[in-house]
Amino acid sequence: MCFKNLPIEFDAQGKAFLKEGAANPYSTATAGPPNTPKQLDPERIKELVKRNGHVKDLDFDPVTRVAGALAFHTVADIKERKVLEARSVATLFRGYEVIMIGRDPRDAIYITSRACGVCGGVHSTCSAHAIEMAIGCQPPPLGVLIRNLALSLEFLYDNPLHLHLLAGPDFSEAIVKGTNPGLIDRAKVTEARHTDVHGYRTMHDLMVDLNPLSGGLYLEALHMTRVAREAYVLICGKYPHPQTIVPGGMSSTITLTVMNEMYVRMSQFFDYAKKMAGIWDDLTDFFYEANPEYKKVGARRANMIDTGIFDNHELYDTTYKNCNTWGNGRWCTPGAIVDGKLVTTDLQTLNMGLEEFIEHSYYDAWTGNGQKQHFPTDPAGNPLSPHHPWNKVTKPKPGAQSWKEKYTWDTAPRWDHLAMEAGCYARLWNTAVARKMPDNPFIESTGHSLKIRLPRGKLPETQIEWHVPDVWNAFERNRARAYCIGWTAMIAMNTWMAAMERLKDGDTKTSTKFEIPKRGEQMGVGFWGAGRGYLTHHLVLDRGAVSNYQIVTPSTWNASPTDKWGQPGPYEEAVMNTPLLEESTDPKNFRGIDILRAIRSFDPCMPCTTHIQSEAGMITREVNTCACGLDD
Amino acid sequence: MKEGPAARTVIGGVGYRNLRDHSFGIVMSDELEPLADPPRLLIEDLCYGPVAVGQWLLDEAVNAPITRAVFVTAVAREDGRPPGTISAYRWDRVLPAEDEIHRAVTEAVTGVILLDNTLVVTQWMGALPEETIVVEVEPEAHAFGDSMSPAVAAVFPEAKRLVMQFATDEAAARALPVLPLGGEWTSTAVWRAVR
Predict the structure, then answer these.
(1) Confidence (pLDDT) at A34
(2) Distance of alpha carbon A508 from alpha carbon A624, whole angstroms
(3) Could you tell me the pTM of the whole model?
(4) Quick one: average pLDDT of A29-57?
(5) Which residue has the higher pLDDT, A617 or A17?
(6) What are phi and psi of A411, to 5 degrees?
(7) Which chain B residues contact residue A116 at CB under 8 A?
(8) Do A607 and B49 touch (CB under 8 A)?
(9) What pLDDT was estimated at residue A624?
(10) For residue A2, what pLDDT band results from cuts at 50, 70 and 90?
(11) Using 50, 70 and 90 to split pLDDT, how confident is the model at A235?
């Protein structure tokens, strides 16, 4: 039984039903999920700050080197080197849910793409999936394959960007010499283990090349983003907002020339992937060996969720009825992991366990006051919560910031009442354990690891193997992300080969005609994924127009606030578990590097979590002044 | 004084589409595009990200260096200049501190497209031509839509004329003051002095 907290059971045929006898099965007036961490009461924290000089506010506003506007409030005991309170603050309202109401659903592909300046294509695709399900329009196999290729290329832009432009500098010589000079001394005499792959003799050499602006790895990542982007625009026309993703497939014209041009660029990632895995293995080992306490930086329970991505072109039929089948046939297996154990890979089960809460978010409740739940079940008859996105109504309610009341524009998505984490590593973990990925010559899921065979480039053919880790923390997130580059490259290679086979057979059809129904109500959901993990778009159509549109992104999960039960969101929990290992004892020089490593390891992307549409217009960039003291 | 044969100029619009006044630059490059005369005069939509813009400029320079770039955009400086004010200047190409450059690169690769980070990132990449001219307008309307506010729409034709003048007339370009980002606007609009 995969649900431990929601009152959902399954009969012998696997059909879900609500437990009998529960008067209000989705009531949140319960004790909450057991054995979960809890935030301390804000009043207690205030007292501690007042009584102890060594207990201090540490605020990061904005958190730099993340996409978009994120602020983070912590209270730390400097003497004990630990964090007592952590609050993740999304400082802007996203508003796409409001913008989409009443529009033609086709607009969603282009409008929701703007939710992100890095990965617009994933939103376009997710939107196309939701529309396809709602209107019953199945893309042809080549359309599915080309979509897979486009999005894998987007991830090959995204993951190197995060590792060496955003997170990487946290481990660079330039930063570490200021926070932990002892580590620099050690790095100078520590030989790197994967010199043969990445070329760095010592860890110090490697860390120097991670330096922002001047480091070789920083500059190389900028170059690799170009390679991926060039390949992407061959089929999507434009980056980051594609012009060729349509309901029913892709509008691109695919020729052998396009495929060859794409291959030339895609293949540059084979060697790069070997190097990235070696670099992040070496960095992780170096920090663990220097101080095993680093295993606690960003640590949290391995509770993760992912919708899977990259459809099997022979299985994807767009229907909700069959989504468990086509979901399990994906190159990246969907799944929920609870305390390190995979509990389901079925998309319907993932969907029915999803709820969004707003106790600490700047929104008004849409449930209660006698309001009727619009969809008590999903299209397959499975029970749905009133807090489910298909039932949600976005009601923004700006107000003062208070840790006791409301403090963020992010909602608190929960699965089976648990704070789940999203990331490319969640799909890596699911796929490694589930052993459901299609047979292929390059990737093998072993049940405890994922083996990736990377073809020969300048470096020889190499097999890299990602193992399910014993601990889950900031270092493992980054290491897994590095392995995702090789994994994604080889999914792209498999997809490219399948597309070439179809072209050889004369199949050039990439899309299916469709019509938007002008009568009745239809519902659909896009189960897709971003470079950062989980992504869903829930859509309801009423007489041809959008009557509800709800987006849950990876950072909606990760940046989520504490919920009604006191259970912190993933960033918050990871920071609360982070020891302060920075060597500086002078508060003036304290940079909070361990906290920042913990947060950045999630690859925060706040634009897709929050944008703003106010009466004054849309704000595309804003630097906020700290409001962290406003918790009265 | 008209340009010599070796001069190579790019006019680039910077901004977002469908964002009313903030689409000023991109509407400008769209409208001027028929006047492009490559390789001497390139007219480009430079809204595809500062890093990519830098890479494009470097690629273009491989065979024949671009000698002048004219960036056109709307920027809310909110320093007192009224909406619709045009400021034109030669950027002094002075980079900010490393932290700020790093922030500009971070914003660039995560989707922020603004004049300031475009100039900072492309200058840091060594991609900007020696003569970098900015023609910027103070916007008023910041919302979805394809119509500009009356104040900004009213100055669009004049801005268009100035952009072409600075792109093709060396004397006019050289007469512009060399200033930091924003052009140190004063109540005497710089472009009036230029004209």
Answers:
(1) 87
(2) 50
(3) 0.92
(4) 86
(5) A17
(6) -90, 180
(7) 111
(8) no
(9) 29
(10) confident
(11) very high
Coil, strand or helix at A502: helix
Indicate if the pLDDT at residue A608 is higher than 70. no
Task: Check if the beta carbon of residue A49 is closer than 8 Å to that of residue A41.
Answer: no
Nearest CA among A237, A265, A229, A152 for reference residue A498? A152
Both structure tokens of A437:
């990925």
Contacts of A279 (CB under 8 A, 6+ apart): A194, A198, A200, A206, A217, A482
| DSSP output for A292-355 | GGGGGTT-----EEE--BS--TTT----STTHHHHHHTSSB--EEEETTEEEE--HHHHHHTEE
Cβ distance of B19 and A620 shorter than 8 Å: yes
Of B55, B107, B143, the CB nearest to A618: B143
Residue with more model confidence, A259 or A611 = A259
Tell me the per-residue pLDDT of A112-166, one tens digit each, with 9 for 90 and over. 988 877 788 999 999 999 999 999 999 999 999 999 999 999 999 999 999 999 9
CB contact under 8 A, B98 and A213: yes
Exposure string of A473-483, with b = 16+ CB inside 10 Å and e = fewer, is bbbbbbbbbbb
Residue A54 has pLDDT above 90, yes or no: no
**In this structure, is the dihedral angle defined by the CA atoms of residues A182, A188, A191 and A196, taken in order, positive or negative?**
positive
Task: Answer whether B16 sits within 8 Å of A64, measured CB to CB.
Answer: no
Cβ proximity of A223 and A272 under 8 Å: no
Q: Which residue has the higher pLDDT, A609 or A175?
A: A175
* Residues in Cβ contact with A114 at an 8 Å cutoff, skipping those fewer than 6 apart: A120, A241
Mean pLDDT of the region A558-565: 94
Band of pLDDT at residue A606, cut at 50, 70 and 90: low
A381 band by pLDDT with thresholds 50, 70 and 90 = very high
Task: Determine, for residues B112 and A161 on separate chains, whether the beta-carbon distance falls below 8 Å.
Answer: no
B111 with A118: Cβ contact below 8 A: yes
* CATH architecture for segment(s) B8-192: 3-Layer(aba) Sandwich (3.40)
For residue B22, list chain A residues with Cβ-Cβ distance below 8 A.
620
Which residues in chain A are closer than 8 Å to B144, comparing Cβ atoms?
Answer: 99, 618
Alpha-carbon distances of A335 from A259, A431, B134, B174, rounded to whole Å: 32, 8, 51, 62
Element (H, E) at A357: strand A354-357
Cβ–Cβ below 8 Å for A618 and B49: no
User: What is the residue-averaged pLDDT of chain A?
Assistant: 91
Supply A30's token pair: 């319960």
Place of tokens 């840091």: B124
Least Cα distance to A332 among A352, A347, A349, A351 occurs for A347
Domain ranges of chain B: 8-192
Name the token pair of B141: 């309307």
Do residues A415 and A323 make contact, with C-beta atoms less than 8 angstroms apart?
Answer: no
Lowest mean pLDDT among A317-326, A382-391, A532-541, B174-183: B174-183
For chains A and B, CB pairs below 8 A equal: 69
Is residue B3 over pLDDT 60?
Answer: no
Cβ distance A595 to A58 under 8 Å? yes
DSSP code for A33:
S
* Contact predicate B141/B18, CB 8 Å: no
Distance from CA of A172 to the nearest CA of B (A): 14
Of the candidates A64, A117, A239, which has its C-beta nearest B112's C-beta?
A117
Q: What is the average pLDDT across A589-613?
A: 75
- Between the alpha carbon of residue A436 and those of residues A252, A333, A446, the distances in Å are 30, 7, 10
Q: What is the pLDDT of residue A422?
A: 97
Q: Where are the beta strands (DSSP E) in A446-559?
A: 449-454, 462-467, 521-530, 533-542, 545-552
Q: How far is B125 from chain A (nearest CA, A)?
A: 10
The rounded distance, in Å, linking the Cα atoms of A115 and A527 is 16
